Amino acid sequence: MTETIEPVPDRIDQQQLAQQLVEAARAEGVELVGPGGLLTGLTKTVLETALEAEMTEHLGYDRHDRAGQENPNSRNGTRVKTVLTEIGPVQIEVPRDRDASFDPVIVRKRQRRLDGIDEIVLSLTARGLTTGEVAAHFDEVYGAKVSKDTISRITDKVLDELGEWAQRPLDAVYPVLFIDAIHIKVRDGQVTNRPFYVVIGVTVDGHRDILGIWAGDGGEGAKYWLHVLTEIKNRGVVDACIVVCDGLKGLPESITTVWPHALVQACVLHLIRNTFRYASRRYWEQMARDLRPVYTAPTEAAAEDRFAEFAATWGGQYPAIIALWRSAWSEFVPFLDYDVEIRKVICSTNAIESINARYRRAVKARGHFPTEQAALKCLYLVTRALDPTGKGRARWAMRWKPALNAFAITFAGRIVPSNGS
Fold this sequence. Notes:
This protein has two domains: 125 residues, no CATH class; 248 residues, no CATH class. It is elongated and about 95 Å long. Strand 3 and strand 4 form a beta hairpin. Helix 4 crosses helix 5, helix 7 runs parallel beside helix 8 and helix 14 crosses helix 15. The strands form two sheets. It has a six-stranded mixed beta sheet, sandwiched between helices. Strands 1-2 form a two-stranded antiparallel sheet. By secondary structure, the protein is an alpha/beta fold. The longest helix has 22 residues. Helix content is 48%, strand content 17%. The two termini are 53 Å apart. One of its GO terms (molecular function) is transposase activity. This is Mutator family transposase. Required for the transposition of the insertion element.
């Protein structure tokens, strides 16, 4: 009986080769990273080998092949070039041909950075580092000098991508839309505090979808919001069941103009957050406990009773808080008619707070922006980092099926999950 010998997987061969290289480097006292390190040498070898293979394909014959003597074009030595890689600067020898028609792909003409470097710059910028801090990072970690202008040009590459993202088609129906604002300092003649509005949708499949970012000019009203919401509708959104917002001027009227059947809901999180702005920090925990029975009440009547108790406790000390809730009461109470699962979606901090926290970290590091476009670019880079595909989506972190059932019953005929959701 002949014994069958199973082939050794390539992955094992690669692991053994890597282990041998590491052991040999250690034996010779060679560092793994840094100038003259093992990884630098390997990267140099791989890039030069790939370039040499490209030259062979370009000319149609191998190096030192006699067939080259009859070819009108031939190799013409090499030129030294330094490229920045994920492990630092690597000096390579790029082959040349006599008629200068060789156009390599692996390291293009005039290319000084491998593509992975651009992604590192975009990732660091999205995490709040300024151009100066990114430059310092490359100097300290990779020993590479990258100017602030170069970093700015790299991040400018996403501007076209931002335009495409802002115009991409959207889903037909969103069970919930959240509208929130983050204030950013922009220098336009003088530094002013500008609102930038983020619209986030929860899809019928339970995804969080950032629909877009709009720069306000401080004069928001019905006309402004009608323009924004009409743009969203024109991108495919024919229905929104609940729109959660913070009482922005003209917004409720614009919502019902664009989507007549939408329910406008005052954002409970904003109400609570604004409540704390009027109170001393030492009372926040106790005040939060006293407010919870109000927004978790089973009915409007029960909520009125609980709020009367809250007002009796805190109204004398903080009358502005009572006025705040009373002024928002008509847009708050629809919340009490919803199923508990729908309430969880509306009150979930994952939808707005986690995203806004990322935005604020990135914005805070810069102080202010020279232009509106620069601020939008920063916010988009953060959005892009949430989902590398550039769709601005991230998985909704919650139990979705119970909420989907509640939405389907409450808004019968308007919520239809996709296949496989």
